[in-house]
Amino acid sequence: MSLFRRLFYRRPPDGLVEISGNILVFDHCYSTDLLEEDELMPYIGGILKQLLGRHSIDSFMVFNFEGSKKDNQIASIFSYYDMSVMGYPRNYEGCPLLTMEMIHHFLRSSESWLSLSQDNFLLIHAEHGGWPILAFALAALLVYLKRYNDERKALEAVCKQAPDGLAEFFSPLDPVPSQLRYLKYVSKRHKSLESWPPVDRMLNLNCIIIRKVPNFDGQGGCRPIFRIYGLDPLAPNDRGTKLLFLTPKTSDFVQLYTQEDCEIIKVNVHCPVQGDIVIECVSLDEDFEHEVMMFRAMFSTAFIEDNLLVLDRNEIDILWDTKHRFPVDFRVEVIFSDMEIGTAVHKSGLSSEEKESLSKVGDAFSHLEWSSKSVHITNEDSKQKGLQTEHDGFEKIPLEETGTSSASAGNSSRTVQIHHIEPAENHSSLASVHSSPEPEASGSGPNFQGGQLSNDTSAQEEHEVDDTKVEPNPEIPRDAEAGDADAAATAAEWSDNNSDVFLSDTHTPSSSTPSSPPKFDEDILEAGMVGTRSQLTELKI
């Protein structure tokens, strides 16, 4: 009789599901039906009466994944039975996940409670719509307690107890890829118990690269924009999530990328990040009014290795029926760089206007660095038409790599990086301009290629300086003529030393003619004979 009583009491009462030993979940969390407020009290109260009739009230630790309501009715119901509840949010910026800090708190609290006594129980509840986060929390607990060694199998074991289509009912995107990523973070705890979770690294998110353009316009293309959410690393006292980066919905930043024209899209971000980060990518229609979610990904900077995060189409959260829109070899590469502490402290003390100005200057140097490290691919058709395929904040890299550019790059002794900082009143991002080899001299004056001034101009200018003959002016004293000769020699030396220095402009050839280095023809030299030596020295700068 005593054995039967023990077996009977081991069975959870009606209304509860036992996930694993001493881990109980309310069964209505597995349903799409919404219990009204007047139905919750009798439903949960009846289950608690059965539990308290079998076990002591001190045997239970209660967790609840809350909804959006400020007045939590669930907590009120449990408090009526003198049971306290630990509440957790139901999502993090739309992702049914917890931050690493909350995951650590949930797992450590659960492990400590269960290890105190074999008669201790975890009682877990999720409000309506909280099934996706509940599934993740249970799977993380099973992995943390080493009841499952494989993250995917742990998540599948939990989801098998739910009816088909429950996750699709509550989540428009498939959250499993990001959830598996965080379950792997939990698994790494077994490799290093003392240093888990690792300290959140403050990184600079330099750029996002999309390889293989997905089809979201019905014609093999998309108009992507990005949003990045997370805590502001420059405001450590503010624990609220912020929109850290947003692509403006303007033609300067948004354009159509097609599978025929390009296979790589590079988006310059240059945004400091730390901790748990959510990246969203949506595609706009041609009027920039309607959005379609392309993909979403959540990750923690504490687990970024080699300053690189690479995700294929199976590792991003996408709409349930859109996997066929992504090529098989689709990839997203998120590239970071270490952020110096001194720079972070300096930025944190600046005003918003100063931060914006400093960010523009930082972008210029970042573009220089990435241009020198990246493989630049040019489109032969665009070169012939003199069109520029780059936009502020975005870079479209065409499919074709011309043999002419490769050959000239191999024979060229140096390449020239060209950057242009927009005026302060222009709020658009800096355009990332590729370096290109020196073209062959055409002798036809300035030659612009993609907003760059070619070496032809410098070569012609140097030739003009060398061949210019200064005629003495009888009306000028001899000592002035001597100073003029020194000025001409200094000008010639400046031209020789700076024949490879170019000014740049991000305008296309169809725009007004950009500014160019001073051209030393006879008129300028005659004017320079009257000028002072300091003016020529200023030109050398």
TrEMBL record:
Q: Name one Pfam family in it.
A: PTEN_C2
Using the UniProt annotation, give all residue ranges assigned to the region (Disordered). Answer: 425-522
The answer to keyword Hydrolase applying to this record is yes
| Signal peptide limits | none
A molecular-function term among this protein's GO annotations: phosphoprotein phosphatase activity
- Output compositional bias ranges, type Polar residues: 447-458, 495-507
Keywords for this protein: Hydrolase, Protein phosphatase
- Skewed-composition ranges (Basic and acidic residues): 460-481
Cite the C2 tensin-type domain residue spans from the record. 200-339
Say which species the protein is native to.
Answer: Zea mays (Maize)
SMART domains associated with the record: PTEN_C2 (SM01326)
Q: Which residues form a coiled coil?
A: none
Q: Where is the composition biased (Low complexity)?
A: 435-446
UniProt protein name: C2 tensin-type domain-containing protein
Give a yes or no for keyword Hydrolase in this entry.
yes
- Which InterPro entries does the entry mention? C2_domain_sf, Formin_homology_domain, Prot-tyrosine_phosphatase-like, Tensin_C2-dom
Which superkingdom is the protein from?
Eukaryota
